[in-house]
Prior knowledge:
This protein has helices at 13-16, 40-56, 72-79, 94-106, and strands spanning 18-19, 26-27, 83-88, 111-117. The protein is α+β, with helices and mostly antiparallel strands and 122 residues long.
Amino acid sequence: MLAEESPVEEYRFEDLTLKTDIPGLYVLPAGTGETNIANMRYVDRLGELLTRFRLEFHAVLIDTPGALEFPDARVIGRLSDGAVLVFRSGATEREKAAALGRRFQEDGINVLGAVLNDYGRS
């Protein structure tokens, strides 16, 4: 959708999302993963898409690739109302997690909190 030319406001609601079995929950699949979200060509388009979603939905959650490896989370974070950082216990070094939090704050991204996955698993 980011690479398409049609104005975002011309899409029908059904073309933007996939309905799930959970009432009121919709998803927009990521696609092929070949689109480089950090490309400025797509940033404006993504902003338009998020503006449309803000009109259609109460809340929009975006799952991005790991922010330590890919720029997507920081690009999307700048367009979002806030971010929740997710780290995997035993996989993310404390120093890298702290550095990422600082980068997000330097970018002006509202960090709402953090989640630690897999803590205490054997």
